[in-house]
Specification:
398 residues, two-stranded antiparallel sheet, Cyt_P450_E_grp-I, oxidoreductase, Cytochrome p450
Length: 398
């Protein structure tokens, strides 16, 4: 990962930094934005964006809910980070971000590992190291894009992650480019993980109708069909919580996890692990360990009710665990609950794909042939009434 860290991001990508003073400083700046207390203040935005999601899914009967999950994830995180909603999901800023991410993914599938595996390559003449120019160009493109987005964000009224980060006294000596990477990483990780997890949820719901019926029964007994669920309902729905946890376990979004390196020589089961060696926390294998998860290849939410303290690899481990766990769980939880309340999940004859797409650390599922059918006229009316009320309030607020 040295090439990605030092050449491709000028040692500014927080997730790639080694544990040390710089990483700890960035973590101290970033963590308050994603703390449990802060995430509670984001609930109105999460409820509003998930309400639009319900309305979009209700209005479009195509077997492609993924486009609306994308809109949900991008709009929610962009609004928090930069103070602007993305109601269509195809706004220019979203497109520009997607193109940048695609360029990074396409170019960095093999180069980082080749250079790290054969360090002598860095001593070749510049014209024989095309990856360096590609890295510099991408670095420039990222700074240019983020600068434009952040400068616009700072012109908007109200609190945003951009204003909070750039005015934090802890980072007063940091260069502007560091803020660009910090906020760019928050946006990218936030919307990709939520979007990908919701696509996996839809596929698994269509393949497990019996478990969905159990969720419907629990939701109906607590909420009914005359109101849309809110955050306060989640604690009253243990099976729905278990359903969400089982989605995260059953099909990890990061099957091989995030590579780590050991800070000092270690030993495990008689094997010597030299300093700086890569450690791969293989999430897929962990989540299918029969000693931890009985009958691991079966989608069985009950396991989380029988033992709420089961380990879950989705958010990583220790001091390098994902700082956005509370944000991810909150956004995923409200959306899973509301979709289970509102819809039946119909799998098309060609099936719902859980096969990873591409060969990247984040293994997004392939396209899913799933359609969502509103459960009743009452559910439809409740969604339409909630959407109309919100639109009215939005127009009155200007």
């Amino acid at each position: 990962m040295k090439f990605l860290r030092e050449t491709a991001s000028n040692s500014m990508q927080p997730a790639l930094l080694p544990y040390g003073p710089k990483w700890k400083l960035l973590h101290r700046i970033q963590s308050p934005l994603l703390s449990k207390e802060s995430v509670k203040t984001y609930r109105p935005a999460q409820e509003m964006e998930s309400l639009q999601l319900l309305h979009n899914l209700l209005s479009d009967h195509s077997a492609n809910p993924a486009r609306y999950f994308h809109q949900f994830g991008t709009s929610l995180v962009f609004n928090l980070a930069f103070g602007k909603r993305m109601p269509a999901g195809d706004e220019q800023e979203v497109i520009d971000f997607a193109k940048l991410i695609e360029r990074k993914v396409n170019h960095f599938r093999w180069m980082p590992f080749l250079v790290d595996a054969f360090p002598s390559l860095q001593y070749l003449p510049e014209f024989l190291q095309p990856w360096k120019k590609i890295a510099r160009d991408l670095n420039k493109a990222e700074i240019t894009l983020m600068t434009a987005i952040m400068e616009e964000a700072l012109q908007r009224p109200g609190w945003t992650w951009t204003r909070e980060v750039t005015t934090n006294k802890l980072g007063e000596d940091l260069p502007w480019d560091q803020y660009c990477y910090l906020l760019g990483e928050l946006y990218t990780a936030g919307h990709i993980t939520v979007t990908g997890s919701l696509n996996i949820f839809t596929a698994l719901a269509s393949q497990n109708p019996g478990q969905v019926r159990r969720a419907h029964k629990e939701i109906d007994s607590v909420i009914g069909d005359s109101r849309i669920p809110v955050f306060e309902d989640i604690e009253r729905l243990p099976f729905v919580q278990a359903f969400a946890n089982e989605v995260l376990r059953y099909r990890p979004l990061l099957p091989v996890g995030i590579p780590h390196s050991v800070s000092r020589e270690d030993e495990y089961l008689g094997y010597r692990i030299p300093k700086d060696a890569f450690i791969i926390p293989h999430h897929w294998s962990m989540e299918r360990d029969p000693d931890v998860h009985k009958d691991p290849t079966t989608f069985r939410p009950d396991r989380w009710i029988e033992n709420p303290n089961l380990p879950l690899a989705a958010f990583g481990f220790g001091r390098r665990a994902c700082p956005g766990e509370q944000m991810g769980r909150s956004s995923f939880g409200i959306t899973v609950m509301r979709c289970l309340w509102a819809f039946d999940f119909i799998e098309a004859p060609e099936g719902a794909s859980l096969t990873p797409r591409g060969q990247n650390i984040v293994a997004l599922p392939g396209p899913s042939a799933v359609s969502l059918r509103v459960r009743s006229v009452a559910h439809r009316d409740t969604i339409e009434r909630g959407w109309s009320l919100w639109k009215e309030q939005e127009s009155q607020s200007g």
